[in-house]
Amino acid sequence: MRYVAIFEHATVDFDLSRDPQLLLCRDGKAEPVALPNLSGYDMQARHFMNAIDTNEMPSATLEQAAIVAEILDAERESVLTGNRIELK
After folding, report:
1. Global pTM value
2. How many Å apart are CA 24 and CA 7, to the nearest integer?
3. What is the 3-state secondary structure (H, E, C) of 1-64?
4. Angle at CA 75, nearest 5°, toward 40 and 35?
5. Residues 6 or more apart from 3 whose CB is under 8 A from it?
6. Cis before residue 20, ω within 30 degrees of 0?
7. 14 near 25, Cβ under 8 Å?
8. 75: Cβ–Cβ under 8 A, 6 or more apart, which residues?
9. Using one digit for the tens of pLDDT, what is the confidence trace for 23-76?
10. What are phi and psi of 12, to 5 degrees?
């Protein structure tokens, strides 16, 4: 699992196979960010199991689903074209 997210004043670089896994880059400096000793997959599974245990099943709106679909389409386009895709 790896991603880079570029924001207005900082960039985050995550790589599950690297130590440190998460770097916060701003003003020309990269700082490691401490993370729990669990992967994103572990945290997602724990969250889901907790929701079942507490009978608080997570729900998503159609608007949220449409946003996810837009992000996935942009990722696909980026992979196919090799270009950076900006979301609006």
Report:
1. 0.53
2. 11
3. CEEEEECCCCEEEEECCCCCCEEEEECCEEEEECCCCCCHHHHHHHHHHHHHHCCCCCCCCHHH
4. 20
5. 13, 14
6. yes
7. no
8. 85
9. 999 999 999 999 888 877 898 899 889 988 998 877 788 999 999 999 999 999
10. -115, 140
